[in-house]
Amino acid sequence: MLTIFVWPTTAGAGSSTGTWFHWAKVYSALAGCLGFMALRFIKKLSTNKWALLFPPIILAINILEAVTRDFQVYGMHGMVDGVFMNGGSWNIMNGIAGIITITGWMGIIISRDRQKDMIWPDQIWPWIIAYDLWNFAYVYNCVGDHSFYAGAALLLSCTFAAFFIKKGSWLQARAQTLAFWMMFTMSVPAFVTNSQFAVQSSHSNAALFTVSFVALIANVAVLVLHVYRIVKYRRNALKDDIYAGMKAHDQVLADNAPEDDLPDDLNLKDHGNDSSTHTV
To answer: Which of 25, 88, 270, 271 is the least crowded, having the fewest Cβ atoms under 10 Å away?
Structure first.
């Protein structure tokens, strides 16, 4: 209904949300929400390894959209499509940083509690922090005047959920918060551009460079950890959980996997309900 009756007017040409990126992002985020719900509540899908290809594919598509836009904005300056652009080397750095390691998709599970959350144990906290830094840098680079909400606030919302409400559920929370935000901001773009709640970016070259540089360093560090564990433990990046054996991974698995599917060293039947007794 928004696509037909609202967005052609509010997110059309000249609007700060009228670019191809915003239109692509709202549908890819919504596709993620619907696909994840299908995995959670259709039992045949939740146990189908081919169906579990969907989360990494939709995540990769979302990353590719942003990387493409970062490279595109490199040559833009001044007002473009209703947004002030200040392209530079920071766009190239952050585009490179966006090539993030995605692993452990075959280890995705549905939590055993009533909530039936989609849990991805291999998306441990270093990966999440590196993604957050990269994505904030993207928003800061490409839609700087939206970055307080679309960057900082939006990323904090799903990261808070993944750290303090349900560990392992980051991608589920990310898709839901992103989809709602995109639908809102495309319907009311003035909220982030010229309302009393708007927070403008400085568009400072130094700030843009610093944010993208930090994001690049963080993602290179995760890549180094990623390759190190693949080589040391002889893991297959397409099939194995690269971070299996680390507390951040194993705790999520112990807290959410069906008890019959737990590895022997994590089985809750052997250790009681207090998952803190597990050794990794």
So the answer is: 270
**Helix or strand run (H / E) with residue 264:** none
Angle at 175 between CA 143 and CA 27, to 5 degrees: 70
Q: Which residue type does 152 have?
A: A
3-class DSSP state of 266? helix
Distance between CA atoms of residues 89 and 186, nearest Å = 29
Decide the pairing of beta strands 118-119 and 109-110: antiparallel
Q: Which stretches does DSSP call E strand in 63-126?
A: 77-80, 83-86, 109-110, 118-119
CB-side neighbour CA atoms (13 Å) of 4: 1
Q: Which residue has the tokens 């952050």?
A: 94
pLDDT band at 221 (very low <50, low <70, confident <90, very high): very high
Task: Look at residues 207, 208, 230, 227 and name the one whose alpha carbon lies nearest to residue 219.
Answer: 227
pTM reported for the whole predicted model: 0.86
Across the chain, mean pLDDT equals 87
Q: How confident is the model at residue 225 (pLDDT cuts 50, 70, 90)?
A: very high
